[in-house]
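Morning!

This is the sequence you dropped in the shared folder:
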Amino acid sequence: MEHVTAGGVEVPALGFGTARMDTDRERRRAIEAALDAGYRHVDTAQIYGSEGAVGDALRASDVDREDVFVTTKLSGDNRAYDAVIESTRASADRLGVDAIDLLLIHAPNDDVPHGETLSAMNELRTEGAIRHLGVSNFSVPQLREAIDLSDAPILTNQVEYNARPRQDDLLAFCIEHDVMLTAYSPLAVGDLLGEPALASIGERHDKTPAQVAIRWLLQQPMVSAIPMSSSPAHVRENADVFAFEL
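The structure's back. Tokens below.
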């Protein structure tokens, strides 16, 4: 497994996303398949409804808890100081962990100042309830503001990034400021799988379009990717992206 290093923190470059799955049974089966396939970075969120399934899969797995980097995100209703503290502790209970590796603001929210949310997140970090903090779906100006407002480093900005919605300006900013860019929807929710260019490149490497799309992301500096699938076969396929280069 390759790693991305941001702010001196090593994070597995390939993570497993847990959005858009309907039942705990489906989620747990997919997460268990991901851990078996070698994923050591699991992404969830309060609004996904998958934190409990992640916790169940971690407990059932032979993989040591400390070997798995777990990320969750604050819902839009949990941005005020007290709500951040209380909801994060509830997330940790659902995940079955003593400390969450990475807690993110899920998206910008004008109802509560980012400074208030980040202050609570920093308090959780000081207490040891979370290890790192970051943001998601932030623009360059919003990310700059978060960096300025937080005492602790902003480890990542998780955004939609794949071969179609390019994020060149944001990636350049992340590289300059030592922030990891975590790419969700790396396959554009499956829309990239029919791209002729990806298929052509894949033929030269004996790889699928999905594998080419993920590898393209992972070869960029400071980028991690979190594909998701409820199919164990696709979970394994998406993990087989380290034995070739584009």
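Headline: The first helix runs from residue 24 to 37.

More detail when I'm at my desk.
O.
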